[in-house]
Write a structure and sequence with these properties.
Helices cover 35% and strands 21% of the residues. It has helices at residues 3-11, 33-46, 58-68, 77-81, 98-106, 124-137, 151-161, 192-195, 197-208, 312-330, 338-357, and strands at 26-29, 50-54, 72-73, 88-91, 113-116, 140-143, 168-176, 213-219, 232-238, 244-250, 265-272, 275-280, 290-295, 303-304, 361-362. Strands 14-13-12-11-7-10-9-8-15 form a nine-stranded mixed sheet. The longest helix is centred in the last third of the chain and has 20 residues, at 338-357.
Length: 368
């Protein structure tokens, strides 16, 4: 294939979303790092109208409001939900407290949509209940599975859709990085699978469709001081076409004491019958994610590396809010719908069942 043809092929790849709508007022609940440094920075760059903010600590909410010129600060999340100026509610709150806020928003006539954090709830039953309650209320409920908008994952999805890799055979996501576990996680009986693997398992669903089974094994992480079961987690998924996928969350990643030169990364790789793609997720290092691929069909077997300057944090979050804005404007389902997210929650639930029962768990064991 000529260099001109390959350049044309690459020009059709879209690592970042097109902003189709930004007409609905956003109210934000939460003022921690993910809201203050990521959500709101993305919304600032995209010119999404944020009209109000609230958090558990009003002083913190006021500090963040001043930083982003948000006009209204409410003393409680409930007061913000009752604010008639808010049309889209964006929640960055612990999953044990999130369902009550969602339910209050579903009952508020002026709120058209809710963007919830993942995990949506602490277990599958609660997630299913929220899905059904949103449908009964006729409201949009979307879940912030932001890895789908990571630039490398978006481009990989496009390559798979175009058939450039042929039939997928094997996929892996390998994470060796140390997350900052929020303090509220110490009170839960679920850790890495629910709060970190959820990114990768959802991305695998986005890329390849619905798996038929999952086998998950886990052990404690030596660095995490509070009691937990699922520290280091490895999950193997099988898909209907016999594709195998492995997701590994190594939150230990080796000693990190002073003087120890350890490395951190998230890598992924997809091997198909006609091509291979591999890349990195830039979140642990603060760099853009990367992708390189070779296709017997479109690159003559040569490795091609598209480039972009945007990052998962914060730029992927533009896409997350944009798909809610567009759903409100058009009256259509959001791309990150709660109905879709319940399937990710079922995969998480199946992973925990697999850990407990030491066996592969089939997804048809769950009645969704």
């Amino acid at each position: 294939m000529s260099s001109t043809t390959m350049a044309a092929e690459q020009s059709q790849l879209s690592p970042n979303v097109e902003i189709r709508s930004r007409g609905s007022n956003v109210g934000c609940i939460g003022a921690g790092m993910i809201m203050s440094d990521v959500h709101l920075e993305a919304y600032r760059q995209a010119a999404f109208p944020v009209v109000a903010i609230a958090s558990r600590t009003e002083a913190k909410a006021r500090e963040v409001a001043a930083r982003y010129d948000i006009p209204t600060v409410h003393s409680t999340p409930e007061d913000l939900i009752d604010d008639a100026a808010v049309e889209i509610l964006d929640i960055a709150y612990p999953p044990d407290q999130q369902p009550a806020l969602i339910r209050r928003a579903l009952a508020a006539p002026h709120i058209k949509a809710v963007l919830a954090q993942k995990p949506l709830a602490l277990d599958l039953d609660e997630a299913v209940a929220l899905r059904d309650e949103a449908a009964a209320a006729g409201k949009i409920l979307s879940v912030n599975q932001n890895m789908r908008y990571d630039q490398s994952i978006r481009v990989l999805h496009q390559l798979l859709e175009r058939g450039e890799l042929g039939e997928p055979v094997l996929a892996t996501i390998e994470m060796r990085a140390i997350p900052h576990w929020q303090g509220f996680l110490e009170n839960y009986d679920r850790l890495t699978l629910a709060n970190m693997s959820v990114h990768h398992l959802d991305a695998l669903r986005f890329l390849f469709g619905e798996p038929t089974e999952i086998m998950t094994v886990a052990r404690e992480d030596p660095r995490t001081s509070f009691e937990h079961e699922d520290g280091i987690v490895v999950s193997t998924l099988r898909f209907p076409n016999n594709l195998l996928a492995v997701s590994m969350e190594d939150v230990w990643s080796g000693p990190r004491e002073e003087g120890f030169d350890s490395d951190i990364y998230i890598k992924w790789r997809v091997e198909g019958t006609r091509g291979v793609a591999q890349g990195t997720i830039g979140w642990p290092t603060g760099e853009p994610s990367t992708l390189t691929y070779a296709s017997a069909l479109t690159t003559g077997g040569e490795w091609v590396t598209p480039e972009w300057e945007t990052h998962w944090f914060p730029h992927a979050f533009i896409g997350v809010m944009e798909q809610v804005q567009y759903a409100v404007e058009t009256g259509t389902d959001p791309e990150l719908s709660v109905a879709d997210n319940v399937k990710t929650m079922a995969l998480i639930e199946a992973g925990y069942r697999s850990i407990a029962e030491h066996r592969p768990v089939f997804l048809n064991e769950f009645n969704l």
